[in-house]
Fold this sequence. Notes:
Blueprint: E1 3-7, H1 11-21, E2 27-32, H2 62-77, E3 83-93, H3 97-101, E4 125-126, E5 136-147, H4 149-162, E6 166-169, E7 190-193, E8 210-220, E9 227-230, E10 239-245, E11 252-257, E12 259-260, H5 269-282, E13 297-308, E14 313-319, E15 322-328, H6 338-353
Helix pairs in contact: 1-4, 1-6, 2-6
Amino acid sequence: MPNIVVVGAGVSGLTSAFLLSKQKDNVITVVAKHMPGDYDIEYASPWAGANVLPMSTAKYSSWERRTWPEIKKLATEVPEAGIHLLKSRVYRREKDMETIRKGGYSFDALFEENPWYKDLFDDFREVSKDELPKGMASGCEFTSACINTMLYMPWLVGQCRKNGVVFRRGCIKHIAEAAGLSHTGAKADVVINTTGLMASRLGGVMDSKVVPIRGQVVVVRNVAPYMATKSGTDDAADEVCYIMMRAAGGGTILGGTYSKGNWESQPDPNIATRIMRRAIEMMPELTGGKGIEALDVIRHGVGLRPWREGGVRIEKENIEGTWVVHNYGHAGWGYQGSYGCAMDVVALVDEVLGRPTL
């Protein structure tokens, strides 16, 4: 029976463990410094919105394409997973159109005028001119999903445990150490590296291409009738604007920032004020037209997206005699690409173990 150790208990690690646990002969241990319920600047998943807004280019869209049916199914059939469907609007600002048309958003296909994801969502439509807020050149709308991470992460843990996965706290300095941390006491046949941002500091990996992209948010009690984002802001190049409401009372997330290389863990009150102002300008109905003073703040938060130059790393590697399957570097799309990436992890584990492929 193959012995597998998954390092990391963020959404990538938990989803990888979940799909691997569906192969009944796998014996799986998840080892992590941080577990669902923890809040730490090293641990990105609890801070995520988390909604589905396709970010990949068409060439690299396979992970998101394969994840959306799974997220949609959970939203409609598994209420305890903490996911709901909600209309989402993506606005393209007039002042950003030249940049968009020149491919200035080549790293992010969300704002393209003819996006590949128009075929992903059944009800995708372009927004009519009379529906656009001031300063917007165009926009699109589709039914997406928003995840209450405080419910979904524990749900994933429960699904894993139901399939026999064992969870252990642990800190490692080198990825090869993980091979000796199986709950069975036996050496692992395969280690899954889902350490996110910490892949930049983990011995045996030390991936210098991984850097944080700081995201600051404000969580409020106000109800958002739909989700929305726009292609830029006037405040700063690394400040963005988005609104999403988590399922089942999880609060409405107002964002945000996209500050590459910034490790600062504490919220900046000036940025928070700008985040709230931009949200109200884009969606006045958030406070019934009463302005920023009518926002009912639950908390301020900061998360570090695990961005990787060149994109996500999903591949197998033999490190000091241990087979390691990497799955990290998802930046801000960890949830919405989680199942597609985990499917690739399963396929790579099968290769390592010499299992026949269908």
